[in-house]
Design brief:
Layout lengths: L15 E5 L4 E6 L9 E5 L5 E5 L5 E6 L18 E6 L6 E4 L4 E4 L3 H7 L8 E6 L11 H15 L7 E4 L5 H11 E2 L5 E4 L12 H12 L6 E6 L7 E5 L3 E3 L8 E3 L6 E3 L4 E3 L12 E2 L7 E5 L8 H7 L4 E6 L15 H9 L3 E6 L12 H8 L3 E2 L5 H12 L2 H4 L2 H8 L14
Parallel strand pairs: 6-9, 6-10, 10-12, 12-13, 20-21, 21-22, 22-23
Antiparallel strand pairs: 1-2, 1-5, 2-3, 3-4, 7-8, 11-19, 13-14, 14-17, 15-16, 17-18
Helix pairs in contact: 2-3, 3-8
Length: 432
C-alpha cells in the first residue's frame, strides 16, 4: 500500500518546499492551484519553469522556508544638477513582477516598486512627474488608450521643466502604440521614448535595467521623435533608438525582439553615451499639438492562397470605412477570373465607398504593382499601394486619416495623405 502524504507543517502557496516522489525529489516554490484542479500540486522550479504533479503520486511535501512578503520602501531622490524628465507607466512586463503564490506576474502597485529594482535611471535624470493613465497589457488596448497616452504626453511635453518623456509599455503590440503616437503628436518638440522589457523586473535576466537607462539618455537627447528604445542584441551592451513607425516585434521572447524594418535606427545608445546614426527632427521650443482623430472601422486583412474574396462583404456589411490588405510579393492577390479571383470584388467594394490600401506581408521590401500584369490589374481597381509602409503602421495611419472627416470625403485626398511621409513611415530608399 502506498504511503500517505506526510505534512508536518502545512505549506502555503509561496513557500519553498520539497516534493518527494518515489524516486525523485523536486525543490521549488509552491503555487496556487485553480479550484477545479485540486488533485494537482504545482511547483515553480529554480529554472523558472512550472511543473505539475498528481497529488496521489506524492509521498511527502516538506516545508523548507516560509514565504515572507517584504515591504521595501524606495525613496525617489532629486538632484538639481540633473535634467528632469517625466514617465508614463501603462503596464506590460516592465511594470510587473513575479507573484510567488501564483507562479505568474502581477502589476507593480506603485512607481517606487519599479525604481527600487532599477534605480540606475536616476544616474542620468530626475523623474519629476509620473503618470499612470491605466495599467493594461498591450493586447487589451485600443485607440482610446492610445489617445489617452497621447493626451498625457502632450501635457508633459508642453511643461517647460521637462526635457523628455519615457513611456513604459507591454511588448506584443507596442508598435501599434508607437505608430499612433507618431501621428497623434504634431509639431513634436521633445523626445517621446517608449521602452519595455521582455522579462519581469524581478528576474536577474530582465532587460528593463539597460532599456530604462538608455531610454533616459534618449529622453534628454536632441532627438524630437517618437521612438522605441530597447536592446540591440541579446547582450546587455547597448540599445537602439528606433523610429516609432518603422519598428516591429520580430521575436516572441528575445531581449532584442524589436527591429527597424526598411530603415535605420536614429541612434545607438550605451549606458553612458549616445551615437547618432541618421537624421532626425531636433528639439525646439514650440508647443506640441494633439491630433488624435481616429476612425475605428478600419481592418487589417491578410490574403492567403485560395482565400474567398467574399470575406470583404463582411466589412462592407458592418460599415467599415477602410481595409489594409496584406498582399504577397510586390503586391498581389489572386486575379484569376474563376470563383476566387479578387478583381471584381475589389472593384465593387471600393465603388461602395470602402478605401482599400495594400501593404506587404513580406514585412521587408517595397510594393510595386507595375512589375507584373496582375499587379497592374489590381491597381486599376483603385487600391492604394503603400510602398514600404509596415502593415500595422498602415492600419493606424489609415484609421487616423479617415478620422479627419474633411479628408475622408475625397478619395484622392485620402490617397495623397496616405502617401505623404509624415512620421518616417515611408522611405524613398530601403535600408538593410
Amino acid at each position: 500500500m502506498k504511503k500517505p502524504i506526510i505534512v508536518k507543517q502545512r505549506p502555503q502557496p509561496g513557500d519553498l518546499v520539497e516534493v518527494h516522489l518515489i524516486k525523485v525529489i523536486y525543490e521549488g516554490t509552491l503555487l496556487e492551484v485553480p479550484e477545479d484542479e485540486r488533485g494537482v500540486v504545482l511547483l515553480k522550479l529554480d529554472s523558472g519553469y512550472n511543473i505539475g504533479f498528481n497529488r496521489k503520486d506524492i509521498l511527502e511535501i516538506k516545508l523548507l522556508k516560509r514565504f515572507e512578503k517584504k515591504e521595501e520602501k524606495y525613496e525617489v531622490k532629486k538632484d538639481d544638477e540633473k535634467p528632469n524628465i517625466a514617465m508614463i507607466i501603462t503596464g506590460g512586463t516592465i511594470a510587473a513582477r513575479l507573484n510567488p503564490k501564483k507562479g505568474g506576474t502581477d502589476w507593480l502597485t506603485s512607481p517606487e516598486d519599479l525604481f527600487k529594482f532599477y534605480h540606475g535611471i536616476f544616474d542620468k535624470v530626475n523623474v519629476i512627474k509620473i503618470e499612470i493613465p491605466f495599467m493594461k497589457a498591450s493586447e487589451d488596448m485600443d485607440f482610446r488608450d492610445w489617445k489617452k497616452i497621447a493626451m498625457t504626453a502632450e501635457k508633459l511635453l508642453n511643461d517647460s521643466n521637462i526635457k523628455g518623456v519615457i513611456i513604459t509599455h507591454g511588448t506584443d503590440f507596442l508598435h501599434y502604440t508607437s505608430s499612433a503616437l507618431s501621428f497623434f503628436l504634431k509639431n513634436l518638440n521633445k523626445p517621446v521614448v517608449l521602452t519595455y522589457s521582455q522579462r519581469s523586473t524581478d528576474r536577474a535576466s530582465s532587460d528593463a535595467n539597460l532599456n530604462l537607462q538608455c531610454a533616459a539618455i534618449a529622453a534628454i537627447s536632441d532627438i524630437a521623435e517618437v521612438m522605441l528604445v530597447g536592446h540591440a542584441s541579446t547582450n546587455d551592451d547597448y540599445c537602439y533608438a528606433m523610429p516609432g513607425t518603422k519598428v516591429r516585434k520580430l521575436h516572441s521572447s528575445r531581449r532584442d525582439a524589436f527591429k527597424v524594418v526598411n530603415g535605420k535606427p536614429f541612434a545607438k545608445i550605451f549606458s553612458d553615451r549616445i551615437e547618432i546614426l541618421r537624421e532626425y527632427n531636433r528639439r525646439h521650443s514650440g508647443k506640441v499639438k494633439l491630433d488624435a482623430k481616429f476612425e475605428e472601422k478600419v481592418a487589417l486583412v491578410k490574403f492567403y492562397p485560395g482565400q474567398d474574396p467574399s470575406i470583404l462583404d463582411y466589412y462592407l456589411k458592418n460599415k467599415y470605412k477602410g481595409i489594409v490588405l496584406e498582399m504577397g510579393g510586390l503586391g498581389h492577390v489572386s486575379t484569376m477570373r474563376a470563383r476566387k479571383g479578387w478583381i471584381k470584388k475589389l472593384r465593387d467594394v471600393q465603388k461602395k465607398g470602402v478605401i482599400i490600401c495594400a501593404a506587404a506581408q513580406t514585412i521587408y521590401g517595397r510594393l510595386d504593382p507595375l512589375v507584373y500584369s496582375n499587379g497592374r490589374d489590381i491597381m486599376k481597381t483603385g487600391v492604394i499601394y503603400l510602398e514600404d509602409m509596415l502593415a500595422e503602421t498602415a492600419l493606424v495611419k489609415l484609421s487616423w486619416v479617415l478620422g479627419h472627416k474633411d479628408w475622408a470625403k475625397n478619395k484622392e485626398k485620402i490617397k495623397e495623405m496616405m502617401l505623404t511621409n509624415m512620421a518616417n513611415e515611408l522611405n524613398d530608399r530601403l535600408e538593410e
